[in-house]
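Input/output pair, single chain:
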Amino acid sequence: MASFSSYRRAPRSAASVNADIRALWARARGRLSADERVAYDRLVVEWAAAVRGEQHRAA
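Output:
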C-alpha cells in the first residue's frame, strides 16, 4: 500500500504561491497567529522551491 506522501500534487507556480502568501497576510492584517506563522513558513518553502524549479526550467 502506498503512503500518503507518494500521492503528491503537481507543484504550483511561484505566482500562485505568492498570491496565497499575500492573501494570508491580508487576512491576518499584518499580525500572524502561531497557526498562521506555520502556514506562512510552509508557503515560503513552497514558493522558494517553485522559484528554483521555474529558474531551472528556464535555463
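The mean pLDDT is 88. Residues 34-58 form the longest helix (25 residues).
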